[in-house]
Amino acid sequence: MNTPNKLTIFRMILVPVFMLFLLLNPENPTYIALALGVFAVASITDTLDGQMARKYNLITNFGKFMDPLADKMLTTAAFLGLLSLGRANVWAVMLILAREFIVSGIRLVAAGEGVVIAASIWGKLKTVFQMVAIIAAIIMMFPFFPDETGTIITEILIWLSALITVISGADYVIKNIGIFKESK
After folding, report:
1. Helix axis angle, 61-84 to 3-24, nearest 10°
2. What was the pLDDT predicted at 183?
3. Which of the 8 DSSP states describes residue 130?
4. Rounded to an integer, what distance in angstroms lies between the CA atom of residue 139 and that of residue 26?
5. How many other CB atoms sit within 10 Å of the CB of residue 145?
6. Long-range CB contacts (< 8 A, 24+ apart) of 56-65?
7. Burial of 134 (0-12, 13-18, 19+ CB in 10 A)
8. Residue 135 and residue 31: Cα distance in Å, rounded?
9. End-to-end CA distance of the chain, in Å?
10. Cα–Cα 20 to 30 A to 149, which of 15, 63, 135, 178?
11. Rounded (5°) CA angle 72-61-110
12. Distance (Å, rounded) from C-alpha 135 to C-alpha 118?
């Protein structure tokens, strides 16, 4: 169990902590700040574990599997939390979740064939856009932002995130469609 893998596990542990702060009292600035802080720390661990694993040659099968799973847990929890608070559009969240299921399915089939699919530039952009949209949406929950302004900014950023997510999903499908060809 190396440090990048420990960071991945730590990120997974932070998911319910983040959800607790986000949903416990969404009108209270203290809870909003705590949710924002936990999400930011979890997001930073995503960058750190990948950089550390590559720099120090600490890439493991555990990390290849769990790192993307931890990312999906964090962003899915955030989008579902925002959705439950009426701060995310159900259609945008559905597009984001559909992409995650499709890409996870492709990765599972590929893994069964002994193929590991690395994250593409679109996958990395998707993660950055999602995290920025989530952080902005949480910031817009603070009471000093007028509801109309916060709603419009959040809506734009989440839809932009959904667009990048769909493009990323299409990229994965196009590049890996051959994985579904039956061998003879």
Report:
1. 10
2. 54
3. H
4. 11
5. 14
6. 58/2, 58/3, 58/4, 58/5, 60/2, 60/4, 60/5, 62/5, 63/4, 63/5, 63/8, 64/116, 65/111
7. buried
8. 14
9. 39
10. 15
11. 70
12. 26
Torsion of CA 47, 50, 52, 58, to 10 degrees: 160
CB 122 within 8 A of CB 167: yes
CB neighbours (10 Å) of residue 119? 17
Cβ 45 vs Cβ 11: under 8 Å: yes
How far is it, in rounded angstroms, from Cα 18 to Cα 184?
48
* CA 178 to chain CA mean position, Å: 26
What's the pTM value of the predicted model, to 2 decimals? 0.91
Single-letter residue type at 160: L
The token duo for 168 is 């990323």
In this prediction, the residues of the chain whose per-residue pLDDT falls under 50 are 184
